[in-house]
Amino acid sequence: MTNNPLVSFQNVTFSYDGAPVLDDVSFTVQERTFISIVGPNAGGKTTLLKLMLGLLKPSRGAIEIFGHSPEKARPRIGYMPQYVQFDPNFPVTVLDVVLMGRLGNGVRFGPYGKTDKAIAMEALAKLEMGKVRNRPFMALSGGQRQRVLIARALTAEPELLLLDEPTSNVDMAVETELFELLNTMSKTITVVVVSHDLGFVSQYVQSVICVNRRVMMHPTTAVTGEVISALYGSDVRMVRHDHGI
Q1: Contact in structure between 54 and 74 (CB atoms under 8 Å)
Q2: Which long-range contacts (CB under 8 A, 24 or more apart) does 39-45 make?
Q3: What is the pTM of this model?
Q4: CA-to-CA distance for 150 and 96, rounded, in angstroms?
Q5: pLDDT over 70 for what percent of the chain?
Q6: Partners of 9 in the β-ladder
Q7: CB within 8 A of 95, min separation 6: which ones?
């Protein structure tokens, strides 16, 4: 692991139509770490991810990903958005969805190549979804769909994986399985995940980025009741879930 940060925000400010969303944000993320972004609704969590991707530009400050602008670094990033919509009547298979992740790797027109399909199948295998590759995507359970969408992000062969609420609308057992999988992935790539459950993710991640217009980054062990109160503006209890880890 090098000392050069993989992600660097320096005095970044961002506003929507003049309304400040992020104010004077500075932090760094090192390679091969597992980081969680937490905070109240509309606090700026998704905005932070979109700035890393270069989908939004800061009003002020500098952002570097792999030492480059987010736009130049984007081919090295895998992204799973919070909301993904598919027409339930459109006959798209699991493999079709995962192959969409190859569209940023030179595929523009025509059929996918053998390399694309091999990478997609490898990603499905990592998520233990290879056996359902030919099933309709909409026929899957919520947890299975989340696994497929993570596989789609992995087909970009990313060095940085950004996931926005990947365990929304799934039960606790599925959430545990997915976070254990992401924890394993963080041994080889950097994983940044937005989550609403601070107590749960604290079992897995090394650091927490607390976002509520301003940003503070803490080691997981330093997330105290005072930190949570300052983040959410009230005495919110951090409930820990023990799963025998």
Answers
A1: yes
A2: 39/210, 39/211, 39/212, 39/231, 39/232, 40/212, 40/231, 40/232, 40/233, 43/211, 43/212, 43/213, 44/14, 44/211, 44/212, 44/213, 44/215, 45/164, 45/194, 45/211
A3: 0.83
A4: 14
A5: 82
A6: 27, 63
A7: 117, 120, 121, 124, 133, 134
Rounded to the nearest integer, the mean pLDDT of the chain is 84
Contact of 40 with 228, CB cutoff 8 Å: no
Domains and CATH numbers, the chain: 7-232 (3.40.50.300)
Helix, strand, or coil here: 166? Answer: coil
| Terminal alpha carbon distance of the chain | 26
* pLDDT at site 168: 75
Using one digit for the tens of pLDDT, what is the confidence trace for 153-172? 999 899 999 999 887 767 78
Confidence of residue 73 (pLDDT cuts 50, 70, 90): very high
Please calculate the CA angle 48-100-181 and round it to the nearest 5 degrees.
60
Distance CA(105)–CA(107), nearest Å, equals 6
Provide the phi-psi class of 128: left if phi over 0, else alpha when psi is between -120 and 50, else beta: left
Three-class secondary structure of residue 7 per DSSP:
strand
Backbone angles phi, psi at 210, to 5 degrees: -90, 120
191-228 b/e with 16+ CB inside 10 Å = b?
A: bbbbbebbebbbbbbebbbbbbbbbbbeebeebeeebb
Tokens coding 241: 């879930």
Q: Which residues pair with 62 in a beta bridge?
A: 10
> What is the band of 241 on the pLDDT scale with cuts at 50, 70, 90?
very low
Residues 6+ apart with CB under 8 A from 241: 172, 199, 200, 203
